[in-house]
UniProtKB/TrEMBL annotation:
Pfam families: Peripla_BP_2. GO terms for biological process: iron coordination entity transport. Belongs to the bacterial solute-binding protein 8 family. GO terms for cellular component: outer membrane-bounded periplasmic space. Residues 1-22 form the signal peptide. InterPro entries: ABC_transptr_periplasmic_BD, Bact_iron-sidero_bind. This is ABC transporter substrate-binding protein. It comes from Cereibacter changlensis JA139. It is found in: Cell envelope. Residues 27-285 form the Fe/B12 periplasmic-binding domain. Keywords: Ion transport, Iron, Iron transport, Signal, Transport.
Length: 285
């Protein structure tokens, strides 16, 4: 008996659009949002990406017209991907392990996930790899990297000198995800000439789960709360009624601000966006 789910998936794939071949460059299907944003920054948008809705919710720009969705990274539509007939597929090693059959559709380029330097160095490595995959000269990646460095330096000059804590509060208002060593915010702050207020232990992703009480000891830090739109109203209510929150030095002295969401595993465009957001928050009246 034919399984109902694969049959329905195959029928659905037949109804989805197949974009016409672009005038320049290979047709790239991307199962990595940092790689996708990097290709867009290089003016070589991909043919398709995974989970375009999530991408749109985390990125500071709109997805270019014509880029199609091939499903979430953990459940790629193989039927649709095959119909699209990409020249290459760009994915992290984890996606290839979860869906090894993508390698039967097109050659797979694995995105870098480790570097000896900072998260910005990793993003620069990704820019160079994406330029090569897209058939661009190395100068294209170099211009993107240099432009990002200049943008971060300019944002740092606007922001002045400060100790900054970038964090995501949870719904209870009592726990906070702090970005520390190895994270994109830490790398961006460093290139801006700002000190990251959290220098303590972190996970492999460069984050640390802190209690509200731990923030009270950060006397010099300006706190930047990352907004998750669906969570902010409830989180604000909890913080507003919290005596402990009002005892945090940054809160008591008016140095706690909300900033827009960003993609913490993003590339150079995400870094630029975050730097601009941080500078705007630190210079607001």
């Amino acid at each position: 008996m034919i399984s109902r789910r694969p049959l329905l998936a195959g029928l659905l794939a037949l109804t989805l659009p197949v974009p016409a071949r672009a005038a320049a460059g290979p047709r790239l299907a991307v199962i990595d949002w940092a790689a996708a944003e990097t290709l867009i920054a290089l003016d070589r948008p991909p043919l398709a990406i995974s989970d375009s809705g999530y991408f749109a919710s985390r990125m500071p720009f709109d997805l270019p017209p014509g880029v199609v969705d091939i499903g979430p990274f953990w459940e790629i539509s193989l039927e649709y991907l095959a119909r699209l007939a990409p020249d290459r597929i760009i994915a992290p090693a984890s996606a290839l392990m979860m869906t090894p059959r993508i390698a039967e559709i097109a050659p797979v380029d694995i995105v870098p996930t480790e570097t000896r330097g900072s998260r910005l160095d990793l993003a620069a490595d990704l820019a160079r790899q994406m330029a090569a995959v897209a058939g661009l000269a190395p100068e294209s990646a170099a211009r993107l990297v240099e432009g990002t460095e200049a943008a971060l330096a300019a944002a740092g000059r606007r922001a002045g000198h400060s100790s900054v804590l970038v964090c995501v509060p949870d719904l209870s208002g009592r726990l906070f995800t702090l970005y520390g060593r190895g994270s994109l915010p830490d790398a961006v702050l460093a290139r801006m000439g700002l000190a990251n207020a959290w220098t303590g232990p972190v996970t492999a992703l460069g984050t640390y789960r802190a209690s509200l009480e731990e923030l009270i000891g950060m006397e010099e830090a300006t706190i930047l709360l990352v907004e998750i739109a669906s969570m902010r109203p409830r989180t604000e209510r909890m913080l507003r009624t919290s005596a402990l929150w009002h005892a945090v030095p940054a809160v008591a002295s008016g140095r706690a601000h909300w900033i827009g969401n960003f993609y913490p595993q993003g590339g150079l465009l995400s870094a630029r966006h975050l730097a601009g957001t941080v500078a705007a928050a630190l210079t607001q009246g």
